[in-house]
Amino acid sequence: MKKRTLGFWEIWNMSFGFLGIQFGFALQGGFMSRIFQTLGASKDEIPLLWIAAPLTGLLVQPIIGYMSDRTWSNKWGRRRPYFLIGAILSSLALFFVPYSPALWVAAGFLWILDASINVSMEPFRALVADKLPESQRSYGFVVQTLIIGIGTWVASNLPWMVSKFGVSDAADLGVIPDSVKIAFAIGAFVFLLSILYTVFTTTEYPPEDMEEFEREKAKKNNFIPDILNNIGNMPLTMKKLGVIQFFSWFAFFTMWSMANPALTEHVFNTPAPIESAFDMADTVQKAAFDTQNTAFQKSSNLVGSAMGIYGLSSMAFALLLVVYTSKRRINRKLVHMGSLILGGIGFLAMYYASPEQLKYCFVLIGFAWGSILSMPYAMLSSSVDPKKMGVIMGIFNMFIVIPQIIAALGGINFVSSLLGEEAINAMTVAGISLIIAGLCNLLITNKNAITYQAEEI
């Protein structure tokens, strides 16, 4: 089927649901460690508490990709039913997670939240490849990245914005501040609303041969053998991209899980107070705990706000690529390599940054993030069978979640401990990992993956 060239607003509408998805991811990535610390987790325990996120991605994304490839509804299409189901579940989880009364409850909500976000996210990646001709693939993924950047910046600033309107950052021992609760409630609303916008403004192409499609659906479900077969026969370019993804996502998982303890401690000098160090029955010590806890919560707002800068710079980076790729050819390999190396430099600079300089570190990280969200998918989509786009995108997610699982199971703690005991060493590890990821782009040699000739838009 020859796919027609889409205009900017058509691509914007089909990608708009990613605004909500990124609200969910940004609130999760920016503030779950803060919630864990508020509920009593030590900084060494935090990476393991995060293991729910990559584990659910490893299980959910290939399953959802496989199912969406085999789904068709005249009313709802192929991918949109999964957008909607994931949005409803994610919105409920986002609303309730900051009300967690104990650490294990928060970890459980993270599991539910990440699984639900993945139900929505994976079909969005496949939708771009479904709807756009190959000449517009980079353009489509870059528009997604533009929307993701907007979502990251706004959501990361929500607790800070809410506190500026007078909502308290103070809270009792083991209680999440109201500023965080309201921010997560806003995120839940935006998530659902943005997904509904895409569902009702976007149509999908039906299967090219409906009779053959129905015959395939009627066959015995061979999900596991099909998944294993696709893994065993993945294109060489996909394997090489997997190496790049490994080091890229190890770095970003390290940031999401450890940036709050690392930066509140090293840059802002306001580490989370340890309950056992205070006699909470003593009025003076209780007041001292409350003072330190409020300072930690306020600096956590500022860390979240600084992290939002990487969403803003990734948005600017994506906007530049939107303008450029709409008319001209790009070298995806060199763009991705340079962006990742710049992001690595941003992480390394955190060791020397003041609170005022921290935003510049995240500007550089945003270039890497903008590229990670577009270039690998554009390169991959030029190297795989379009009939299997959903399941391939799901399998490709393995190269995202496996490094995160390794990081959570002790990878971060082990590697950063080689540099010392300070939490900031985790950011140094993230920087080194991202620079290695950038250099691994030299492995990519497939000409179709590296570049393309754009059509007029």
Describe what this molecule looks like in 3D:
By secondary structure, the protein is mainly alpha-helical. It has a single domain (8-202, 211-216, 223-450), classed as MFS general substrate transporter like domains (Growth Hormone, Chain: A, Up-down Bundle). 72% of the residues lie in helices and 0% in strands. It is built from 19 helices and no strands. The protein has helices at 8-15, 17-38, 46-49, 52-69, 80-96, 103-131, 137-164, 178-201, 210-218, 223-232, 236-266, 283-325, 332-349, 358-372, 375-381, 389-396, 398-417, 425-439, 447-450. The longest helix is centred in the middle third of the chain and has 43 residues, at 283-325. The two termini are 19 Å apart. 56% of the residues are buried.
Helix and strand pattern: HHHHHHHHHHHHHHHHHHH
What proportion strand?
under 5%
**Total DSSP E strands:** 0
- Structural class comes to mainly alpha
Shape: globular
What's the short story on this structure?
With 457 residues, this protein is mainly α.
Descriptive labels:
mainly alpha; Growth Hormone, Chain: A; disordered C terminus; 457 residues
Topology at a glance:
Elements (H helix, E strand, L loop, with lengths): L7 H8 L1 H22 L7 H4 L2 H18 L10 H17 L6 H29 L5 H28 L13 H24 L8 H9 L4 H10 L3 H31 L16 H43 L6 H18 L8 H15 L2 H7 L7 H8 L1 H20 L7 H15 L7 H4 L7
